[in-house]
Amino acid sequence: MSSKDVFRPTCIIGLGLIGGSLLRDVAAHGQPVYGFNRSTSGARAAIKEGFDASDDLVATLQRAATDDALIVIAVPMHAVGEILDAIKEHAPQCGFTDVVSVKAEVLRLVRDRGLEAQYVGSHPMAGTADSGWKHSHTGLFKQAAWAIAFDYAVENDNPGKFWVDLFTDVTKLIQLAGAEAIPVHVANHDAAVARVSHLPHVLAEALAVVGDNGGILAQSLAASSFKDGTRVAGTSPALVRQMCETNSAALVEALDEALILLADARDALAADPADLSYLADAGYRSRTRLDARSGAHKNSVSPVKISSRPVLRLKPGAYGWVSTLKQAESLGGRIEVY
User: Fold this and answer.
1) Do 133 and 21 lie in a common domain?
2) Which residue ranges does the record assign to the Prephenate/arogenate dehydrogenase domain (predicted)?
């Protein structure tokens, strides 16, 4: 058994793109894993491919309770409350995490049910515009940032062995999937993803509408820059609403900042002579910093990404480990546990 192995079975609730891909990754490493999918057809498709899946939520959670499994909630935001209620009823002693794109609202639902001592929030920064089991695949999370929240350890001087072990196993699950565990406070996570995940959805939707309003000629001339910029507009509108509306306060702040930049650009273009130098230069510098941060090699047809996130190794529960988590967060660094 390697240092990355999760020391309990994994039970995944929701086998869509994220949950299904995680199920595939865990199974590929020979670790015990099974899951539930509300869609009978999705569950049957997983079974047909040789995976352990069911469309019976109660039976799946009762099995998790027997196995003392690590439960992963991988359902849309609107279904989280229902799943938490089911966990409280049928697997009340199990630790669990989630992969929802907002953390404050999930934490609120967890606290409302008195389950915070059994919960470690997380969020993989990976995915596509597609959804459902049929789009899941191994390797989706390779070298992706995967946020893991540690508010509970900050708020409790002694979070207890159960929570520390849970945090350890969630971190190991992230590492097993090939992702990089980035420790975060819940509020900091939601503020950050508002800028780099949720705002892009809003801008992509607006850009898609403006392009479409150009008619058939504009559509015919649309090249990669437009298609890349509007890719996430192909995401299910319901999923976009759930992401953005449940993180509205942080998203409004980021959107206000973007609107100021766009308004200034509009005025600069309307001037005589037109001058877009400020936004063009600032955007170029920002993108250059992002490329340097991601470790992308330039001048490559298929850029290879090598992690440039600093890594801090720690032993959960050891003296000073929470301070190390805070340091990693301040650096945007990843953690490895031993």
Assistant:
1) yes
2) 8-301
